[in-house]
Amino acid sequence: MIGPPPGVRVWLAAGPTDMRRGFDGLARLVQEVLGRDPFSGHVFAFRGRRGHLVKLLFWDGQGLCLYAKRLDRGRFVWPNAQDGAVSLTPAQLSMLLEGIDWRMPAWTARPEIAG
Known about the structure:
The chain is of the alpha+beta class. It has 2 helices and 5 strands, in the order βαββββα. InterPro entries: Transposase_IS66_Orf2 (IPR008878).
């Protein structure tokens, strides 16, 4: 996936979403449930009940784009809240889409001596 441009916020819709929804249904959820503008250029992420499917909805200036990804193994890490939205950084979104736990990423190696 191409990364979002600078200044774009990423919003995760807390709780499960009916993954049969398409452009219009997800845009309506953004407006009515999240209280945000689906045409703002921000990225809105939704996860299915089983946790292996995620959909991203965003406006690119010309139309709505819908990106979907299904994991072969494992689940996407999602907030425990049942309603509302959680804001992520673009880096956290990249980790989420790779199946990495974006909440507590661990450094693999830290420098011990400076200089």
